[in-house]
From TrEMBL, chain A:
PANTHER family assigned: 26 PROTEASOME COMPLEX SUBUNIT DSS1, 26S PROTEASOME COMPLEX SUBUNIT SEM1
Recorded family membership: Belongs to the DSS1/SEM1 family.
Species of provenance: Chaetomium fimeti
An example Gene Ontology biological process: proteasome assembly
Protein name: 26S proteasome complex subunit SEM1
InterPro entries cross-referenced by the UniProt entry: DSS1_SEM1 (IPR007834)
TrEMBL record, chain B:
Signal sequence extent: none
Protein's name according to its UniProt entry: Protein CSN12 homolog
Family according to the record: Belongs to the CSN12 family.
Top-level taxonomic group: Eukaryota
Length: 95, 456
């Protein structure tokens, strides 16, 4: 009786120690990164329009984002493989 | 600086020019230790108020007695703080003495200074042009709060003492004790700015955005999106009586738009998020690299979800960190490589979760799938063109071909039922236009734009 109580207690302790350890591990990681993910104070309070990102990007804002698909990129391995696969499917149909 | 004749001469100059930022400089704790020592030693606790009173009374400035009384109190409180800061700085250099919570004391004396400054605006008639004094005091209150928390957390003996005293002890709250207190103080300052009823040109409302930004930063640190929302709501409600947003300094506009954008992002309001973050990006100072990186960190996932566009190489060029984070994912999305996309997402999981963009990026898988299906469609080529007509793409695609594509992309065998399910989802979400003819095992795609917005 006493022995079982003892083991459960041990288990409890082990269980209690574990989450604490885990917590510490998860805590220490973001803490280090947290330091630099805060928006910084600007060294000056205000600036001219020509010092803004929009002005310095030389009006090329529309080239900063591109389509998520790419028709030119048909020479990569993956596209070649895909063509092979499609041929196989078509061939099996005809048979 | 020291509280001597040249200091009072400077004050005369500042008050006649009404230069708020220069005045604020005289209340900054962010000065060399030597300077600090000079100020501290220039007076003692008995003489300080008398000296200030004489000095300020002698200024050739149009002051009323209340205002003079106010500034005497402010500079006396500042002088008081310099001594405590000096002690804290000196002991951080000498680790053997760091047995007591010196930065907590700094935080407390600095809070006293802030309260005096606040009273200056509420009771002693401080003018609105002096509001940068409030900025500098508030800004450093937050810094001291964080330093105090850090010092206490590093010093476990104080933690234990607190733990024993309280039954309902929550270590997390305790960790941020002073920062939370600071948030409460700052929200009071915010109200003092917001509720000023003086005419706009001399209103403390001009201080609203600076203080709001400090509060937002603080709430972000405390992980409280709901309190942040309160600030936005309050500013929105007061909108009619506020100066035009574009009239505020750009540093304040950019900082505010960034936080507003991130909050919208966390609520999955990507339309508003994109709008705010784009504004922040456009107005941001071109050399503020760290802030530009932070803005892009959320703007990139926004673009992916909203307009299905990816950052161009040129955009990411100056940001190696962002390249490392996003380029692998972008490449997989472009090529429709589902399996590699999953791997890349897994690879960056910790960091994506930390940046709170994981769930948004996960939705990029749909775009990768869309591109994969599109590739199948494009690879199948055209119908034989009739005389004098433009060649039309072959719009009747066997489910088996899509299945082959998806199996290749995801590196696992997927049965046709599951493929049909994925296709139905794509059609439902508007990534693909057409219908599935189960009878024939064929997908009939729209002849005009089978994959909307992608030129085919």
């Amino acid at each position: 009786m006493a022995a079982t109580q003892n083991t459960t207690q041990k288990d409890d302790k082990a269980a209690a120690a574990n989450p604490a350890e885990q917590q510490q591990a998860t805590e220490s990681k973001p803490a280090a990164l947290e330091e630099d993910d805060e928006f910084e104070d600007f060294p000056v309070d205000d600036w001219e329009q020509e010092d803004t990102e929009a002005a310095s990007g030389s009006g090329a804002a529309q080239h900063l984002w591109e389509e998520s698909w790419d028709d030119d990129d048909t020479s990569d391995d993956f596209s070649a493989q895909l063509k092979e696969e499609l041929k196989k499917v078509e061939a099996s149909k005809k048979r | 600086m020291a509280f001597n004749t040249s200091f009072f001469n400077d004050l005369t100059d500042i008050f006649s020019k009404q230069d708020g930022y220069q005045l604020a400089q005289t209340l900054s704790p962010d000065i060399p230790t030597e300077e600090l020592r000079k100020i501290c030693r220039s007076q003692n606790a008995h003489s300080i108020k008398g000296a200030l009173k004489r000095g300020l009374n002698a200024l050739t400035v149009d002051f009323d007695q209340q205002e003079i009384h106010g500034w005497v109190e402010v500079y006396a409180a500042y002088w008081n703080a310099t001594g405590v800061i000096l002690a804290a700085r000196e002991s951080s250099n000498d680790s053997s003495k760091s047995s007591s919570l010196l930065w907590t004391k700094v935080y407390e004396t600095w809070t006293e200074l802030l309260n005096v400054v606040l009273r200056g605006y509420q009771n002693w008639g401080f003018e609105a042009w002096t509001i940068p004094c409030m900025y500098v005091v508030c800004k450093h209150l937050r810094i001291f709060a964080m330093q105090a928390d850090e010092e206490r957390n590093n010093n476990s003996s104080f933690d234990d003492a607190a733990a024993i005293l309280q039954d309902d002890f929550d270590p997390e709250t305790n960790k941020r004790q002073k920062l939370e207190d600071c948030a409460r103080v700052l929200s009071r300052v915010f109200m003092v700015c917001q509720t000023d009823r003086a005419p706009l040109e001399e209103s403390r409302k001009w201080g609203s955005y600076y203080i709001a930004n400090l509060l937002l930063k603080t709430y972000f640190k405390l992980n409280s999106a709901s309190l942040s929302k309160n600030i936005l709501n309050s500013l929105r409600a007061g909108g009619r009586d506020m100066p035009d947003f574009s009239a505020f300094p750009k540093s304040q506009q950019v900082t505010f738009k960034y936080h507003e954008g991130v909050l919208a992002f966390l609520e999955e309001n990507y339309v508003l998020a994109e709008q705010c973050l784009t504004e922040a990006w456009n107005l941001c100072h071109k050399d503020a690299m760290k802030n530009k990186e932070l803005i892009l960190g959320y703007l990139i996932p926004c673009h992916l979800i909203k307009s299905h566009t990816l950052p161009a190489e040129k955009l990411l060029e100056p940001f190696p960190e962002l390249q490392r984070l996003f380029l692998p994912l972008c490449r997989c999305i472009k090529r429709g490589e589902l399996h590699k996309f999953d791997l890349a997402l897994q690879e960056g999981e910790d960091e994506f979760v930390k940046r709170r963009i994981y769930l948004t990026l996960e939705r990029g898988r749909d775009i990768a799938l869309r591109n994969l299906l599109r590739k199948v469609f494009v690879a199948r080529g055209f119908e034989e063109a009739k005389e004098g007509e433009k060649p039309a793409r072959r719009t009747r695609v066997p489910v088996a071909e899509f299945a082959a594509g998806i199996s290749l992309g995801s590196q696992e065998k997927i049965d046709n039922d599951e493929v049909e399910c994925l296709l139905a989802n794509m059609i439902y979400k508007g990534h693909m236009k057409g219908y599935i003819s189960r009878q024939h095992g064929i997908v009939v795609l729209s002849k005009s734009g089978a994959f909307p917005g992608t030129n085919v």
